[in-house]
Amino acid sequence: MTQRTIIATKAPPASGCLFVLAAPSGGGKTSLVRALLEREGGIRLSVSYTTRAPRPGEQDGVDYHFVDEPTFMKLKAAGEFLEHAHVHGNWYATSAVWLREEVQRGHDMRLEIDWQGARQVRTLMPEAVHIFILPP
Question: Residue 112: pLDDT above 90?
Answer without folding.
Answer: no
